[in-house]
Design brief:
Elements: E1 3-8, H1 12-22, E2 27-33, H2 37-50, H3 52-55, E3 69-71, H4 74-78, E4 85-88, H5 95-104, E5 108-111, H6 119-132, E6 136-138, H7 146-156, E7 163-171, H8 191-207, E8 211-219, E9 225-238, E10 244-252, E11 261-265, E12 268-272, E13 281-286, E14 291-296, H9 306-317, H10 328-343
Parallel strand pairs: 1-2, 1-4, 2-3, 4-5, 5-6, 7-10
Antiparallel strand pairs: 7-11, 8-9, 9-10, 11-12, 12-13, 13-14
Helix pairs in contact: 5-6, 6-10, 8-10
Amino acid sequence: MKTKWGIIGLGGIAERFARSLKLTENAELYAVASRDINKATPFSEKFSEKFAEKFATNATDATDGNVIKPYGSYSELIQDKNVDVIYVATPMSEHFKNVKECLLNGKNVLCEKAFTCTYEEAKELTELAKSRKVFLMEAMWVKFMPVFKKAKKWFESGKIGEIRTIDASFCRPTPYDPDSRLYRKDLGGGATLDLGVYPISLITAFLGYDCEIESYLDLDKFGVDRNMTAVLKYKNAENNNGRKTYATARAGFDIESDCSATIVGTKGKIILKQDFYHAKKTLLYDENGNILEDINTEIPLDMDFIFQIHEVQNCLENSKLQSDINSLDDTLQNMKIIQCIMDNVE
């Protein structure tokens, strides 16, 4: 049986997600919703026409001749009894309200990151999902990419020994636009929430959450952080040579980096090459700098989200309320670190 997906919020990220659904077995894009039906209908028509053969399992389900139902409000889609799971792709500032409505109506949810704007919001949603016995997951796609999972296996099998340091950055120059959600505090703007969630998630995936945090933010006149550097000092991570473990996360709109991640251990290192957040290449080195393994996967843009979609569907098929790879506790602990970083403003 196919999983019927709904999408609320129809920006660029939603289009990419819809293209990945096209390539996902046992998935059907059943309905889409915008606050304006004049936006929802063209989106519906575009994907109905492009992917009709993939999605049109039952033409009688269509509205106004479309295979994919368009809705002019989020609530209408949320209340559609035929929708199995909803992908929330609205602006970050709307995530809490939108996800809460989904959960209260018994709908399974995959929510874009950052999950929420605050730790307290994230805590309320995770507790609500558990109490309502509804599936909920943050769309931290990097954790499901094949090369990221390979890097984790290298580490877990002892290939690089004990970790000494991790350095991960996501800095992408973005011209200032006062109307852009990226630079509007009321829409959850700022480099930490928009970009910093990626390096923080990567670091904690390898080192966990028991750390002290020092952070430095460069704020504009409206209080929006243009760039962020955070140093995570792990309290109990000390190797046999007495060296402690530190990790550095960087994010920025007004600085540039190659967006790579380097994990250095006592026996070698792992490098997730450029744009680690949708990692396609990773290398394993020994302690002398020799390449032991070089994994390179060319994943088309249309397939970027397919791996996390598979995870959601596998969880639903097995009656699991959260992912083992990206659990609700993972999301909550990461949001606690993000909150600490954002609160550390001089």
